[in-house]
Amino acid sequence: MATVEVTFTPLPVHVRTARLVATAVARRSGVAESLLDEVRLAVGEACSRAVEAHLRHCPGQPIRVSLTDDGEQFEVVVTDAVPGAELAGAAGTTAADGHGAAEAGLPAGFAGFGTNLAVIDDEVPMRLPDGVGLAVIAGLADDVRIAAADPGTSVTMSWKRRAG
């Protein structure tokens, strides 16, 4: 099992680097070429959400991206350090179905995972309606899990490797 771990300061410019690293590691891990854009987009969305949450709540803490190949699947975990206690009851809905985090059964800190700030063409930020980012990630990855981390939230995305 090979693992690559990247940490970066919560600046939007670093999202592009995380996407490039994830795509390169996915390719080297044997993920089908046809899925590489999906990996790139999902990782970019998860990192953008983490950056936005960090800029609001803990700008001095790094974001962690872990990329793992276990032989059968390629997994990316994006972990923020936004404390859940600070975010309990944060305004906005973030679940893909338009409900708040508690109604969706997500960890307490997930409500503060932020509204969606998408980066289009690696440069232009664009605000999307709440919940769209999670729906995008869920549509791009084979499996998505969201869990409380200590502190913060982790978004785990995985893709099957190509047969071979």
From TrEMBL:
**Which Pfam families does this one have?**
HATPase_c_2
Query: Where do the Histidine kinase/HSP90-like ATPase domain residues begin and end?
Result: 8-159
Coiled-coil zones: none
Q: Which UniProt keyword terms apply here?
A: ATP-binding, Kinase, Nucleotide-binding, Serine/threonine-protein kinase, Transferase
Query: Is Nucleotide-binding one of the keywords UniProt gives this record?
Result: yes
- A GO term for molecular function: ATP binding
Name by which UniProt lists this protein:
ATP-binding protein
Query: Which top-rank group of organisms is this from?
Result: Bacteria
Please name the InterPro entries in this protein's record: Anti-sigma-factor_SerPK, HATPase_C_sf, HATPase_dom
Bilayer-crossing residues are: none
